[in-house]
């Protein structure tokens, strides 16, 4: 078990925030994942990177109004070249890649904004990839023999 994590449960997920000391951030993340997965039935699916942000998220993180962010995004205020949204919801809400927006805010507006360290993003990507490979293996286990023999080679080297 672990003594340096605070557990927060929600409707669809459980999050654990750690204050862990280790020689590096990567080692802290790996040891936290191992500790969590040492609990029967627990599987870590991410390291907490929140890359996609809405206008409201950008406003909070830059300590500016939502209207200011809207004007930046529309090119009507600020130095221009605001990053393009990377996704739009079916309802029309746009989302941006936070590291791109943070870089823009630092370089163009000289704002001190926080960006998660690369190690957290890398851990997230590796954990997502691990989950995808496990799901692919599960699919192949229940697939007919012909499907396994045809698609199985796609997982070689994983």
Write the layout of secondary structure elements.
Blueprint: E1 5-9, E2 14-18, H1 25-37, E3 52-53, H2 55-62, H3 66-74, E4 87-88, E5 94-97, H4 98-109, H5 118-142, H6 145-151
Antiparallel strand pairs: 1-2, 3-5, 4-5
Q: Can you tell me about this structure?
A:
By secondary structure, this protein is mainly alpha-helical. The chain is built from six helices and five strands. The strands form two sheets. Strands 3-5-4 form a three-stranded antiparallel β-sheet. The protein has a two-stranded antiparallel ribbon with strand order 1-2. The chain is globular and about 60 Å long.
Short structural summary:
The protein has 158 residues and is mainly alpha-helical. It has helices at residues 25-37, 55-62, 66-74, 98-109, 118-142, 145-151; strands at residues 5-9, 14-18, 52-53, 87-88, 94-97. The strands form 2 sheets. It has a 3-stranded antiparallel beta sheet with strand order 3-5-4.
Proportion in β-strands: 5-15%
Roughly what percent helix? 40-55%
Supply the number of helical segments.
6
Q: By helix and strand content, what is the structural category?
A: mainly alpha
Question: What attributes does this structure have?
Answer:
two-stranded antiparallel sheet, 6 helices, about 45% helix, mainly alpha, about 160 residues
């Amino acid at each position: 078990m672990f003594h340096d994590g605070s557990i927060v449960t929600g409707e669809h997920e459980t999050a654990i925030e750690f204050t862990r000391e280790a020689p590096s951030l990567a080692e802290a993340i790996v040891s936290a994942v191992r500790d969590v997965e040492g609990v029967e039935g627990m599987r870590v699916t991410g390291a907490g990177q929140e890359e996609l942000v809405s206008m409201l998220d950008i406003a909070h993180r830059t300590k500016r109004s939502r209207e200011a962010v809207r004007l930046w995004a529309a090119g009507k205020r600020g130095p221009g070249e605001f990053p393009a949204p990377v996704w739009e919801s079916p309802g029309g809400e746009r989302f941006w890649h936070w590291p791109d927006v943070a870089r823009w805010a630092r370089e163009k507006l000289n704002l001190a904004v926080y960006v998660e360290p690369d190690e957290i993003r890398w851990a997230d990507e590796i954990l997502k990839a691990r989950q995808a490979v496990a799901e692919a293996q599960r699919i192949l286990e229940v697939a007919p023999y012909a499907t396994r023999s045809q698609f199985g080679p796609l997982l070689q080297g994983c």
